[in-house]
Amino acid sequence: MGRWTTKGLAIAAALLALAGGPASAQLGGVVPSASLPVDPLGTVGKVRDTVRDTVRDVADAALEPVGEAARDIGRLARDRLQRLSHYVSDNAESVEWDDRHQPAVRGEILLLDPDPEALGVARRNGYAMIEQGALDGLDVRYARLRAPEGKSLARAIKALRKALPGREISADQLHFPAGRPAGGARESGGGAGGLPRGGTVGIIDGGIAGSDRLAAQQGFAKGAPRASDHASAIASLLAGAGTARIYGADVYGSDPAGGNALAIARALGWMQGQGVTVVSVSLIGPANPLLARAVASARAKGIVVVAAVGNDGAAAPPAYPASYPGVIAVTGVDGAGRVLIEAGRAAHLDYAAPGADMSALVPGRGRVALRGTSYAAPLAASRIAARRAALSSAASALKAADAEAVQAQPRTGRGVLCNICRSGL
Fold it and tell me: Is the distance from CB of 246 to CB of 275 less than 8 angstroms?
């Protein structure tokens, strides 16, 4: 306990002050309330319990230096609210808040398992059909409906739920990348050593450029596939970790409403049709019933879905798709083995992997430094895929990954995967 005692008490006091104060204190006390949405992803309402959990972990050597934690937790919460608010405001023609104050595709509503009776009720209440269909390969049926003219998305969802009680109805919420390439270059090292290599990983993200491992790429948004630094960096990491083949699904393209739940669900169906058995998703958003159903169907068909927990800090609400049952949730560690201070959280945690103090090749930018759980998820996926290529089932591949993981503790789940990969990144 020694050297942690004084610092631990100081950080506990600071964090509990954040947890116990009014909303402005919880967000750092400097955010003009009129400029922000009312807690769009539930941050303020959940800060108290999460911060207390963080206090219990203060003496954990896997944390960033504790003197920075009180400042960072408030900054991350504040930045997240501002970022989402500005995004919706800047893209108001394509995006609006839904009934849970989540960013979503403007004016569009998803109805699961539509039947003639339900569609008739919707039509009589002024909801127009945009599209009706099923996700290829995943056996999930849905309808996209247009909200009635002059009615906000939030009001339209509530009204349709009242007209169709018991039905699964939601907005088509947006998901955002869990990290971006930064600046600064460093030299590449010597690869993943003697670990098993190979396997196939699917990336659901933006468009991929500059990868000689890319087997196929498909677009699921307007203007897709369109090269993305984020996705290209992930592909570079996978190549460095020894992944043999990469499949890319661009769910963003040039669409401000890209990254929506329906696009990600369609991408999962495409991955299933391509025979991809491990899919990495470095995107975060809220829970969505259509995407939850798609993930469950993909898993039932043998796909291992690996997802990042995000970079909005421990006070953020649980990130999805990482929080869906059975998804492999991954956090990030730095070169000293410390969990990233900005790492978000999920309803469960499976592994950690390198998420800082490494680099990747990005076309047009050269070798760039990386930081974020976005980059940890594909490295964990690379290890699972290498095992999956040699073993008969997803369960056996995950069991082998468990045996490979090191430094297991509560903040790294079953342990750190691919730590040796850092030398080649």
Answer: no
Same domain, 29 and 131: no
Assigned token pair, 6: 């004084």
pLDDT in tens, 302-330: 999 999 999 999 889 999 999 999 999 99
The predicted-structure confidence for 136-195, as pLDDT tens digits, reads as follows 999 999 999 999 999 999 999 999 999 999 999 999 999 999 876 765 544 333 345 567
Helix ranges (H only) for 278-393 are 289-300, 373-390
Q: How far apart, in whole angstroms, are the C-alpha atoms of residue 251 and residue 265?
A: 10
The domain boundary, picked from 73, 90, 107, lies at 90
Host domain of residue 225: 176-424
Find residue 146's DSSP bridge partners: 108, 128
CA 156 to chain centre: 27
Please indicate, yes or no, whether residues 111 and 41 belong to a single structural domain of this protein. Answer: no
Integer Cα distance of 198 and 201 in angstroms: 10
pTM: 0.84
What φ, ψ does residue 408 adopt, rounded to 5°? -65, 135
What are the Cα distances from residue 378, in Å, to 172, 279, 305? 25, 9, 11
Q: Over 60: is that where the pLDDT of 2 sits?
A: no
- Strand duo 328-333 + 214-219: pairing: unpaired
Helix (H), strand (E) at residue 104: strand 103-112
